[in-house]
Amino acid sequence: MEVERITFERTGGFAGMHNVVNINPRDLPEEQAKALLELLDELDFDELPEELKNNPPLPDQFTYKISVETKDGEHSVTTGEASAPEKVQELLQMLNRIARKQAQQKR
Amino acid sequence: MHKHSGINCFIPPHMLKNIATKGTESQKVLAIDTLKISAQMRGRRQALADFSAAAFRVASGGKERIVYDAKNGSNLPGTIARREGEAASADVAVNEAYDGSGTTYDLFNDVYKRNSIDANGMRLDSTVHYRTGYDNAFWDGEQMVYGDGDENLPVEERLFNRFTIALDVIGHELTHGVTQFEAKLMYSQQPGALNESMSDVFGSLVRQYQLAQTAAEADWIIGKGLLTANVNGVGIRSMKAPGTAYDDPVLGKDPQPAHMKDYVNTISDNGGVHINSGIPNHAFYVTAIELGGHAWEKAGQIWYVTLKDKLTTNSKFQDCANLTYQVAGDLYGAGGLEQQAVQKGWAAVGLTVGGTPPPPEPGGCLAALLRLLGAAPAKS
After folding, report:
1. Domain residue ranges in chain A
2. Distance between CA B261 and CA B258 in Å, rounded?
3. For B279-291, what is the mean pLDDT?
């Protein structure tokens, strides 16, 4: 899977803040890019359902939307933090770290 | 297959609930296990709210707390760090969760005569040190959970402190539990924003109660101390002036409206539950300021009775306005200062209650002129 861009969006949480980052794997340190792409492959990201949300939603939990663009198109998955399977949790943690690093660079 | 699954096949839920409450110890364990499994299947939170938490938490008859430590993992509740009555821990987050849930219990118990979250002595469980770098706190349907903020980053990069640092955050999470047992406000759109607002209202009242502040003395900030010195902001939300709590290059600007004309229509954040809560938050603030004195006394009482007895799953802002107005009349007399204060509170955010005349339509000379010009229909 040739990933061109990942859009990572986090909403909700106690603070209700809305964070969106665009991640180009080519801009990441090599190790990190490799780990990220391997995890997407391992997850069969394209095959994941579009909605992994809690129903009903849980107070103050984060909601995440991960969109992965390849040359063949885009696939998005929306998930609550508690409703994400363990492997997706790993992906969320990884993307959170990258997003945080990017946010820091705004300062 | 679960070892107790046999019980699931034969006994209807209402009977299980009975067993869970009144059976022998081993029967209770079986019944509770089964209820928990079916609860997980049906959507854990609501199902658990269906029966009294006393069924699976021994009612103590008084304040009973346990603070757990997740040790940076995600398994809940984690290992026990402090039980009711035990001496303070060396861990500040453990003590904050313990003391904060105690103060919240005290406000509800002393002022509103409510014995814990379920009004039946439910034990207050909290877990601290949830995950690493976790900028959040939540109520999971059974307990409170707190992250440590940005503890894994260098000090100069941190934006969030630990979430137990602010007493109103603790009160906020516990109030989600109260709402779950009472109004059961759906966590979406306007009912969700009311759910959030109730948590902010009682979260703020817990802090005001502890500090013995009057409405005029209180800062009405939610999450004071939660943002580090690296952030341009005083907290997460302001009930006094929604939309002004922070304005920062990394975190952005506080998006809360203070008036219905600025209501935010969005699909994110479950329909803006943490955004539009600014509107009912501000209505409460104005009501409390109008009444003067301690906000937890009259304003808090009116909101508490409304949450407990009046609001339902689908209630919207206008419903809450009408019901708080009605409750103010019931508790303190129709047309009294309390009811007027509630009316002013909602008027400040653009909602009319209690038969205040709507804005006048053009009448008299203006209407005649408009009719003459053909701009208004002739009176029938």
Report:
1. 3-106
2. 9
3. 98
